[in-house]
């Protein structure tokens, strides 16, 4: 099983950017935790981060036939990107939307997602464990 893990804009700044909201771990710290967990389960993971919407869309397209599932933290694109939504609809790969912070305890504009209604699920507010929960779900979803 192969899972693609996508991270959107500004997530490359984790550990530096608003640590009181997003925590002190860097994106590479989080990726290392995910990689170790996936390895213990016999699952291959691929990581991709971009601040550019088009690059994320292209990576979703490239996942067609190459990934069994996708975990995405779309960052601010959660609330703005019809293009990313359409990319997911075009490839029909099961995916889980994740957020480090609890978006529902934050500004009202963060409460709207263009992806959540087409995602298999949404995990929000659990920090790095949002990714672990999503990974565990996708493994069980694919095996059921």
TrEMBL record:
Pathway: Metabolic intermediate biosynthesis; chorismate biosynthesis; chorismate from D-erythrose 4-phosphate and phosphoenolpyruvate: step 3/7. GO terms for molecular function: 3-dehydroquinate dehydratase activity. The keyword Amino-acid biosynthesis applies. Pfam families: DHquinase_II (PF01220). Catalyzes a trans-dehydration via an enolate intermediate. Homododecamer. This is 3-dehydroquinate dehydratase. It comes from Desulfurella multipotens.
